[in-house]
Amino acid sequence: MAVTEIKDSAKLKLELDGGMDGDKQIVKSKTYSKLKVDAANENVYGVAKSLSGLQELPLLKVKKVEEVELLEEI
What we know:
alpha+beta; three-stranded antiparallel β-sheet; 1 helix; elongated
């Protein structure tokens, strides 16, 4: 059984350092939707680094969240 993947949507998520609560890391996030599904990872990361410079909190992680539809090939 072969399965085909169709990219439906993508989002850019910045995870920011919200400080510590005792020994637990607090993570705040900002999500930007309507990312082009075929955007290159290098370009997405570059935009994320630029956007992180506009934030008050330091950047911890950059995530690209994709939603895909899976179809069975007949």
